[in-house]
Design a protein that fits this description.
This protein is of the alpha/beta class. It contains 6 helices and 10 strands; from the N terminus they run ααβαβαββββββαβαβ. The strands form 3 sheets. The chain has a 4-stranded mixed sheet with strand order 2-3-5-4, with no helix packed on it. The N and C termini lie close together (9 Å). 25% of the residues are buried.
């Protein structure tokens, strides 16, 4: 069944109608947070509308793509299929829930990319970057968030028009209280802000922002992020069932 809530006319069928319900609900959340009203971006894309957005991409633009893959071994072929269908391939692919452990050998089938990973101690979670081999980057171990049940990676890449771009990918396991994560994450934001560098932190934080009215910890997290003048961007792609 096609989605009747999404504003995209060419939207293909959804695998889960809750996506659009969350989209509408999160829009109403902006009225409760002044900072969020100006620091919020939420859109849905199918492949056609995503490629339309990429029409204006130039060589100086960075295309960063994040996917919660729920097993990179099982679903990498589908990821490669989607990347190959894009007008421009993403320079950096951030992946959460790789479900890789230290003893698991993994060589990406995606040609021309280098894999950097942070594995989980459990059968869930784990993060990775697939980075185009032509990019100049360094791993920022000093930005690692040392909290329980949280895998994260941070890299910095050179950009001809900027001082440097810092990119993080984070997976926080849902069963742990996020107060400790919130404090460490905010410290990272403040540290990077002081350097005046552009940065992006993408991932799966397992924090339901729609519960901020009823949960003071979530409200505090939301305030801490938006008070640093960060933009919350929620992009979901439509999937066929």
């Amino acid at each position: 069944m096609a989605c009747n809530s999404c504003s995209i006319d060419t939207c293909v069928p959804y695998s889960n109608s809750n996506f659009c319900q969350s989209h509408q609900a999160f829009g109403s959340l902006r009225s409760s947070y002044a900072d969020l009203a100006s620091n919020y971006n939420c859109n849905y894309y199918n492949l056609e509308t995503l490629n339309d957005e990429l029409r204006t991409k130039t060589e100086q633009d960075l295309f960063l793509f994040h996917v919660n893959i729920r097993s990179v071994i099982k679903n990498e072929d589908e990821l490669i299929e989607n990347i190959s269908a894009m007008r421009f391939p993403s320079e950096i692919i951030a992946i959460t829930e790789t479900k890789l452990q230290a003893n698991r050998v993994f060589h990406s089938k995606l040609k021309g990319y280098i894999c950097v990973r942070a594995d989980s101690l459990t059968c869930a979670g784990g993060v990775a970057f697939l980075i185009k081999s032509t990019l100049n980057y360094q791993i920022r171990d000093d930005l690692h968030i040392f909290v329980p049940a949280c895998e994260n990676l941070w890299i910095e890449m050179n950009h001809p028009d900027k001082k440097g771009i810092v990119i993080g990918v984070v997976y926080r396991h849902p069963q742990h209280d996020h107060s400790e994560f919130q404090e460490a994450f905010q410290e990272n934001i403040l540290r990077i802000n002081k350097t005046k560098k552009v940065f992006y932190a993408c991932g799966d934080y397992n924090i339901n922002l729609l519960q901020s009215d009823a949960n003071h910890k979530i409200a505090s997290y939301l305030n801490s992020v938006t008070s640093c003048s960060r933009t919350i961007t929620l992009f979901s792609t439509c999937k066929r069932t």
